[in-house]
Amino acid sequence: MVLGVIQSPPPQIVTSKPASHCNLLLQHLNECKDMSQLKQIHALSLRSTLPNHPTTLFLYSRILHFSSLHDLNYAYRVFDHIDNPNSFMWNILIRACAQSQSVHLKREAILLYNTMLQRSSPFPDNHTFPFVLKACAYLFALFEGKQAHAHLLKLGFQSDVYINNSLIHFYASCGSLESAKNVFDKMPQRSLVSWNAMIDAFVLFGEFETALQLFVQFQQQFFEPDGYTIQSVINACAGLCALSLGMWAHAFLLRNCGVSVARDHVLVNNSLLDMYCKCGSLDIATQIFEGMQKHDVTSWNSMILGFAMHGKGESALECFERMIRISRFLPNSITFVGVLSACNHRYMVNEGRKYFDMMVNEYKIEPQLEHYGCLVDILARAGLIDEALELVSSMPMKPDAVIWRSLLDSCCKRNASVELSESIARQILESEQGDSSGVYVLLSRVYASASRWNDVGLVRKLMTNNGILKEPGCSLIEVDGVTHEFFAGDTSHPQTKEIYQVLNVVEERLDSTGYKPDYSQAPMVDELNTSKRDSLRLHSERLAIALGLLNLKPGMPIRIFKNLRVCDDCHKVTGLISEIFNVEIIVRDRVRFHHFKHGSCSCMDYW
Fold this sequence. Notes:
Layout: H1 11-16, H2 18-30, H3 35-48, H4 54-70, H5 72-80, H6 87-98, H7 103-118, H8 128-139, H9 142-154, H10 161-173, H11 177-186, H12 192-204, H13 208-220, H14 227-240, H15 243-264, H16 266-278, H17 282-291, H18 297-309, H19 313-326, H20 333-345, H21 349-362, H22 369-381, H23 385-394, H24 401-413, H25 418-429, H26 437-449, H27 453-465, E1 474-479, E2 482-487, H28 496-512, H29 532-537, H30 540-551, E3 558-562, H31 568-580, E4 585-588, E5 593-597, E6 600-601
Parallel strand pairs: 3-4
Antiparallel strand pairs: 1-2, 1-3, 4-5, 5-6
Helix pairs in contact: 2-3, 2-4, 3-4, 4-5, 4-6, 5-6, 6-7, 6-8, 7-8, 8-9, 8-10, 10-11, 10-12, 11-12, 12-13, 12-14, 13-14, 14-15, 14-16, 15-16, 16-17, 16-18, 17-18, 18-19, 18-20, 19-20, 20-21, 20-22, 21-22, 22-23, 22-24, 23-24, 24-25, 24-26, 25-26, 26-27, 28-30
């Protein structure tokens, strides 16, 4: 039915049968298509209904609801002409403001709630608080959200599942994980959304192991995970580089949601792309990307960053060109971090300059610290240390420790003068970031490269006197779904005896190839009174590789994940082990992936 001009009813209908006339208007309202028709219904209701009649109030609430979805300003005008709006009417406006994309309107949702409190009636009900808390979460309004929490407790809503779900999301969004967990732990009854919100909160805070432990509890409660649960699990697996569990989550998704849903769900697919890239399975990530029906900017960014961290610089740049030339997506700031990282990993100095200029001049993206850091590292790694220093001095923001470490590392690797390295180190030590252990470690390496062993000892003594500890190297390897953790010189593993036996075999095979250790980075990691060679052979990644050689089936790649950058000697040794034992080894460190196959590595000229 197309609603035309509504004729006024006979006067006797208004006075004698207001309910029946309201019912007639409600029928028109059910078939209302746009604001023009709604305004006609509203005008007629003002002329032909009794004020404060229950049916009239219901009609006005329906008019208010429709207008809140299509014209919020008109909804406010309707609301202002209602003498005694009930809680349902307040909730309609608060929800419309809270769900708006406008920051101003989200603030308005909180103001409406406060105005509601100032009136003697009505009181907020259990539907009010989820909308208010949603606005507080978006605005990071921790103080206002806590006030709402206190009020809902006063009103006796502490057991309401929907309100508690909103509280978990609110506290997590505002950076208060402990408060979110406290709400979750006290819930007498939990829904699927409750578990999803808490698991996602742990993932948001980088508590990946806790998130997966909670997921196990979730399954023990006989809940069936949905797409949101699996997406959080996949993100946790990406953070932990837990490939086996990530593949299980992917298989679950395909088995329970169907291939078409898994293929068309952009957010889930983006999580899968991120997980497979971070877990060293670039081929699977590429297959998922090419099979996706829809992409967004995050999809493209994930692949560009994935290619970059795997040392596939040319593929990353080809992906970027497809993104902007064929798919016509506009790149954002994250896109260019990936592009510049790709140039960095493949020594593409001219390309790095080109894409940095493209970002600034063509796409009008203001460079952030990450972009400058990439370009500085590109120049410094290519030996253009003076140009890199000029760029640092021209940056509109203060360089961070990452940029300074990059310059120091380049000074060491490119045999720059010790004086220049000392000057850079001095600037860091005199800045706010002067307590960074990385500065001392890199300065020690500069001295070691110059064979100034007395100065190496002085740096070690300075660190000891100042209570500065080097971050310990830690490597993870997954065997049959179980993650094993190793530190340098670790002897705590149940298979320690067998691991060290494998290391001895490796050492003998390395000697037969003419391998000569690179001791330049041994001094700062030799925490034991052993030889420099023993220090190198007991690095955490070598222990993990030994476990992989011991337990993994033939043909299975060894995947290692290390918290620090792999040293030169370990990089060389890993390549030799790959060739000697005919095994594929994938090592992800703080900077990138090192993919060894038949002795060769996808990282170009690693140093």
